[in-house]
UniProtKB/TrEMBL annotation:
GO CC, one annotated term: cytosol
Gene3D superfamilies: 3.30.420.40
CDD domains: ASKHA_NBD_TsaB
Broad class of the protein's primary localization: cytoplasm
MF-aspect GO terms: transferase activity
Subcellular location, record wording: Cytoplasm
Protein name: tRNA threonylcarbamoyladenosine biosynthesis protein TsaB
Family according to the record: Belongs to the KAE1 / TsaD family. TsaB subfamily.
GO biological process: tRNA threonylcarbamoyladenosine modification
Record domain Gcp-like: where: 38-140
Length: 245
């Protein structure tokens, strides 16, 4: 890669029911994005081969690998991390771990540009259903000059806490409309909610600005972002803890 060139990035995102792989080469992009519940492991490598073949390149021309570190489904996160680890070892490429929630913000604002009648910036909330009566929440700011910015740490919260946290947001996007219809209805009465899942194409775009976080596997093994200490904890166990507290 020449110093003036945009880096070529292969990104993999499997944190939700959506499975996606994207390849960015200069201004060109190649992407596969499908809803594949419980079939990520069977399809993700085929998607990797598809985008590379479509682009007409080989692995030596890829500069960085990016993967969705989460938060999200436990099994899905392990798939992306495991696949990227294997590719990075085989190809000797540096890896960039990217937020799956921040990826949704990049997607939304890439496709919903502020027009002249909008404010110069908007506050946003990215949400994913975490099961067990909880929600993953990431919040930030989007501005005409600085693009997507994260202003809060990612959190795991119950419905009432999320309702309070998103009260001042201008827009919310995610997948909680089926699990929390009242929360979405309440928010939609004053602002916009958009159904959205993480997409590797927008992760690759963000990764281009995050090359300083890249690491070779000799330095750091890719680790998913888990917000629960015990990811296998049952709903009943969580209820018992809440009763004791």
């Amino acid at each position: 890669m020449n110093s003036n060139d945009l880096p070529t990035i292969l990104a993999i995102e499997t944190s939700t029911v959506a499975c996606s792989v994207a390849l960015l080469i200069g201004e060109r992009s190649y992407c596969r994005h499908e809803l594949l519940p419980q079939r990520h492991a069977q399809q993700v490598l085929f998607m990797v081969n598809d985008v590379i073949d479509e682009a007409g390149i080989d692995s030596t021309q890829i500069d960085y690998l990016a993967f969705g570190e989460g938060p999200g489904a436990f099994t899905g996160l392990r798939i992306a991390a495991g696949v990227v680890q294997g590719l990075a070892l085989g190809w000797q490429k540096p890896v960039i771990a990217m937020s799956s929630l921040e990826t949704m913000a990049q997607d939304y604002f890439q496709n919903n540009v502020l027009d002249s009648t909008d404010k110069d910036s908007q506050t946003w909330s990215a949400v994913l259903d975490a099961r067990m009566n909880e929600i993953y929440l990431l919040q930030g700011l989007y501005g005409r000059e600085n693009g997507v910015q994260v202003t809060e740490e990612v959190r795991l919260m119950d419905e009432n806490s999320v309702a309070e946290a998103i009260a001042a947001s201008d827009v919310m996007f995610g997948d909680i409309d089926q699990a929390y219809p009242e929360l979405v209805e309440q928010f939609s009465a004053r602002a916009d909610y958009h159904k959205l899942l993480p997409n590797a194409l927008y992760m690759a775009q963000l990764a281009r600005g995050s090359q300083d976080r890249a690491a070779l596997l000799d330095d750091k093994v890719p680790q998913p972002l888990y917000l629960r200490n015990n990811v296998a904890e049952t709903i009943e166990q969580r209820k018992q803890k809440q009763q004791k507290s």
